[in-house]
Structure formats: C-alpha cells, structure tokens
C-alpha cells in the first residue's frame, strides 16, 4: 500500500516526505522490523519506541510514525499522529482493509470465563451454520482450524488482531469472536475493531497492579460497550450481554447501547435457566430467552459453565443464530483445553486441569468440584512472578476449600520460587504443614505427589498452567505440558 493511501484513512494523520513509498507491513517493535515496514513508535510501560527510530530505519523501515518531534535519518518519510498508541490500531486496520467492517464481531471480556465463552460461542455459531473465527488466550481459529496462541497475550497487539481479522474475512468467516482484556481496551489494541456485541462474564479484583482501583478496572472493560455502540452499522442491532448476578451489572447497564440483554440464575435476567440440574459431568436446563426457549444439555461441568453458556447464548442470538439452534450447539461443546479439563485414564479418582491462577479463580474451581467429590479434594497450585494476584489469598482459598493441597511453582521468572511459596503460605491459617499441606517447589514432583496420595473417590485439581506449553523460569521458557505430566503420574501410580 502506498504511504499516502494509508495515511488518508488514518484520523489525524499528517504525512511528511515521500508519499509514494510502498508499505509492506506494520511494526511496533524495532527488533521485528522488516524492509518496507512502517514502524510505529509506541510508548510502552518500560520503553518508548521513539528511542528506537534509528534502529528501525537501519533495519529497513520504509517510513516511521511518531506523535512527538523527533530526529530521523534525512529522507525518511514521517507519519505524524495525534497518538501512536491509538494510531497503531487505526494504521493496522487501514493497512489490512478494515476487515472488521466485513464481519460481525463479538468481544468477550471479564475476569474469569472469557476463553470458554469465546470458544463456546464460536462452536455454537459453527454448529448453526454461521462460519466463525475466534481469537483467545489459547488459540486463533478460522473456520475451525486452530493455531496455538504463543504470544503470551490474551489479546495481541493491534497489527496481529487486524491481520487475523483479515484472514477470517478472506476465508469467508461471517462472525469473529475476540477474547478482549482490560489491557487491550486501555491500550487501544482493539480500538479500530467495529464490534457488534460486547459480552461480559464477571468483573473481579484482578490486575490491580495495572488498574489503580476496581472502578478503573471496570471502566476499562466498559469501553467494550462504547466500541460496540460506536462501531460501523452492519445491519444487526448493537448489543451488550451482561451478567445480572455480578456486582458490575449496575454500572455496566447504564452504559448507552441500542440493546441490552442480561443473563443470570433468576427470572429477573433476560436469559436464565429453568429446571436446572447439575451433575459431575455437566448440566441440563431449559434456556429462557427474549427470543424463545431451548433445551440445553451441557457436557462441561460446574455452575460457572452454566453462566458461560448463558453468555454465549446471548452473543449467538444477537448475531442471528435461531433460538432452536442454541441448545444443540451448546450440547456439542466439549470444553476448552486447560479449562476444568478432565484427565481420565480409567483411574478410580478424578483429575482436572484448570487455568485458575488467582485467589478467586482457585476458590471458584474448588467450590465447583466439592459437591461431586466423594472423597478428598486435593489441589496443586502456585503463583506467578509477574502476577499481582493475591498470593496469601490463594493460600487461604486452598486452606478453606480443599482437604489437602500442595504449593508449587508457576512461572517464577526471576523471583525466588521459595519466596513466592512463602507468600502463598502466609495466607494459610489453621492447617498443619506436612499433614494438611506440603510445599513441593518442583511442579513435576508436586503433581506426582498429589496423584500418589489420591485415593478412590478423591478429586485432584491441578491449577494455574492450564493450556500453557511453557514454564517461565529465570533462564527462559522451558517446555511444559500439564496434561502430559498428569498422565505420566497416573500411569506410574497404576503400575
């Protein structure tokens, strides 16, 4: 694309220099610049792209985008933007042909359950004959073909978001479902996406290292409603799908948008279950919605998955799935890798893998497993180095809700795993080390120990790693597969 043509579609852009230069890609990291790229100098938390303009040009950048006066190599075209952070999304969207305007786009946000709702929605859409795509913590999916998300980000930077939307549009996808974090909303990574549906799971007390208060965190997530309300008109009503049972509902429901649907466990919600029956393997209920009713049989366990199903149903109805297709679509969904994923090799105790890596998520997972555990509830978990999550709170959750637990390691990076474990242990009250819990820093050994002590009827929850394929250590990323480790431990015990 010619730089002049690109600049013309970016709000507030002022072009200086050769307007005819050809742009072949968009880069925001000077280390990733390829010849022909437009390098957008974005200021991050730890560094400012404006400091790396020389390196970007030396690497072959055909032009640079800035939002303050800078010195660049003479002859280098410069695109001046009001904000390169906001501008990165606009530039990327324009470069890829504004793909979100050729798709229905649903954004899924919240503290817990985003990934499951994203893929559950995608599954129901596909089952109903609406070709879908998805972007999540776990994978990028186009027409059912998945690529693992190895970026380390739930919602990637704007150029990757727009590139995947372009792939979807080119592949004939009709609806894209994007797992959308508060960071992505604040940093405008999805700023140039024309959303049609904004869906919320819950808003807990997460990322308090980034957001000063819970109110700031909620406000960041509420931006998704604004993006949907202000998105390009594609012939369907702009809709917010909100959890009526969550403390966030009162404030989010005041956000202006054309249509608002609530979901929850009571008849006060627009979407709610009737005759709900929960089992160890799933649930059954009659789904009541503003557009009719549908019988639902879920093959994924836990009450929170009923909430996830209600949310996904709201999104699907909003983009045109007939009510009679909702139940069959949900029935065929068998879960997401690393989200309360069962490991069953025929053993006489249950093993589950879950991504729960905060105090609230750990407590929720344990509480859901308790009613269906005949024996003891055993937990293996740790806290990450880069996390602001309540480490003592994780210890308290395990102490309150499990019968035996093992504190171990989870992505320590450059922190001392033993120190992290002590922080977690500080929240444990009224439990005896060596009897009620242990600290086993080697995660492989911790999993083996939990499986070793499990008796018939027990449930073992391996929390924190979920779908992840690496362990982030001081020396770098090491390969890790939680399911493989669990299966190896089960096989060894059965010998």
How do the helices and strands line up, and which of them pair or pack?
Layout: H1 3-8, E1 14-16, E2 25-27, E3 37-40, H2 53-58, E4 63-66, E5 78-80, H3 84-95, E6 104-109, H4 114-127, E7 132-135, E8 139-142, E9 145-148, H5 158-170, E10 175-179, H6 182-186, E11 197-200, H7 214-229, E12 239-243, H8 249-252, E13 259-263, E14 272-278, E15 283-289, E16 292-298, H9 303-318, H10 323-331, E17 341-342, E18 350-354, H11 359-369, E19 377-381, H12 391-401, E20 404-407, H13 417-425, E21 437-439, H14 443-453, E22 459-463, E23 470-473, E24 476-479, H15 482-494
Parallel strand pairs: 2-3, 3-4, 4-5, 6-10, 6-11, 7-10, 11-12, 12-13, 18-22, 19-20, 19-22, 20-21
Antiparallel strand pairs: 1-5, 7-8, 8-9, 14-15, 15-16, 17-18, 23-24
Helix pairs in contact: 3-5, 4-9, 4-10, 11-12, 12-13, 14-15
Notes on the structure:
- This protein has 495 residues and is an alpha/beta fold.
- The protein folds into three domains: 3-95, Udp-n-acetylmuramoylalanyl-d-glutamate--2,6- Diaminopimelate Ligase, Chain: A, domain 1, CATH 3.40.1390; 99-331, Mur-like, catalytic domain (UDP-N-acetylmuramoyl-L-alanine:D-glutamate ligase, 3-Layer(aba) Sandwich), CATH 3.40.1190.10; 341-494, Alpha-Beta Complex (Protein-Tyrosine Phosphatase, Chain A).
- The chain is 32% helix and 22% strand.
- The protein has 15 helices and 24 strands.
- It has helices at 3-8, 53-58, 84-95, 114-127, 158-170, 182-186, 214-229, 249-252, 303-318, 323-331, 359-369, 391-401, 417-425, 443-453, 482-494, and strands at 14-16, 25-27, 37-40, 63-66, 78-80, 104-109, 132-135, 139-142, 145-148, 175-179, 197-200, 239-243, 259-263, 272-278, 283-289, 292-298, 341-342, 350-354, 377-381, 404-407, 437-439, 459-463, 470-473, 476-479.
- The longest helix has 16 residues, at 214-229.
- It is globular and about 75 Å long.
- The termini are far apart.
- The model has no long low-confidence stretch (mean pLDDT 94).
């Amino acid at each position: 694309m010619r730089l002049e043509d690109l600049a013309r579609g970016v709000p507030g852009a002022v072009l200086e220099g050769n307007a005819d230069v050809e742009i072949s890609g968009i880069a925001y990291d000077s280390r990733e610049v390829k010849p022909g790229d437009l390098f957008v100098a974005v200021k991050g938390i730890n560094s400012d792209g404006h400091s790396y303009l020389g390196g970007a040009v030396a690497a072959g950048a055909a032009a640079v985008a800035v939002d303050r006066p800078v010195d660049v190599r003479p002859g280098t075209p410069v695109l001046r933007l009001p904000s390169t952070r906001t501008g990165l999304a606009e530039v990327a969207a324009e470069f890829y042909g504004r793909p979100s305007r050729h798709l229905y786009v649903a954004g899924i946000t919240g503290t817990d359950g985003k990934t499951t709702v994203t893929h559950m929605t995608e599954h129901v859409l596909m089952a109903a004959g609406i070709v879908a795509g998805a972007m999540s913590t776990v994978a990028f999916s186009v027409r059912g073909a998945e690529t693992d998300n190895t970026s380390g980000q739930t919602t990637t930077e704007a150029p990757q978001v727009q590139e995947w939307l372009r792939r979807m549009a080119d592949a004939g996808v009709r609806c894209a479902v994007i797992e959308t974090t508060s960071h992505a909303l604040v940093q405008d990574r999805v700023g140039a996406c024309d959303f049609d549906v904004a869906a919320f799971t819950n808003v807990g007390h997460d990322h308090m290292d980034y957001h000063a208060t819970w109110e700031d965190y909620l406000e960041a997530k509420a931006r998704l409603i604004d993006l949907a309300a202000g998105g390009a008109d594609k012939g369907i009503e702009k809709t917010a799908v909100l959890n009526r049972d969550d403390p966030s509902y009162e404030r989010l429901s005041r956000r202006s948008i054309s249509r608002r649907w609530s979901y929850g466990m009571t008849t006060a919600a627009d979407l709610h279950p009737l005759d709900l029956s929960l089992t160890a393997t799933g649930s059954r209920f009659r789904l009541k919605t503003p557009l009719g009713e549908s019988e639902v049989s879920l093959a994924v366990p836990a009450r929170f998955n009923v909430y996830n199903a209600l949310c996904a149903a709201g999104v699907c109805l909003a983009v045109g799935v007939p009510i009679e297709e909702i139940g069959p679509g949900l029935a065929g969904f068998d879960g997401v890798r690393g989200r309360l994923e069962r490991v069953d090799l025929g053993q006489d105790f249950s093993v589950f893998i879950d991504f729960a890596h905060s105090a609230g998520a750990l407590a929720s997972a344990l509480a859901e497993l308790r009613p269906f555990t005949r024996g003891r509830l055993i937990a293996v978990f740790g806290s990450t180095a880069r996390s602001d999550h309540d480490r003592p709170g994780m210890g308290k959750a395990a102490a309150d809700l499990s019968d035996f637990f093992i504190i171990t390691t989870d992505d320590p990076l450059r922190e001392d795993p033993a120190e992290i474990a002590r922080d977690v242990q500080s929240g444990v009250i009224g439990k005896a080390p060596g009897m009620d819990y242990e600290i086993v820093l080697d995660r492989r050994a911790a999993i083996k120990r939990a499986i070793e002590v499990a008796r018939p009827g027990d449930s073992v929850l391996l929390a924190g790693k979920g779908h992840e394929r690496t362990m982030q250590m001081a020396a770098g990323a090491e390969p890790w597969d939680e399911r493989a480790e669990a299966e190896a431990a089960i096989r060894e015990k059965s010998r």
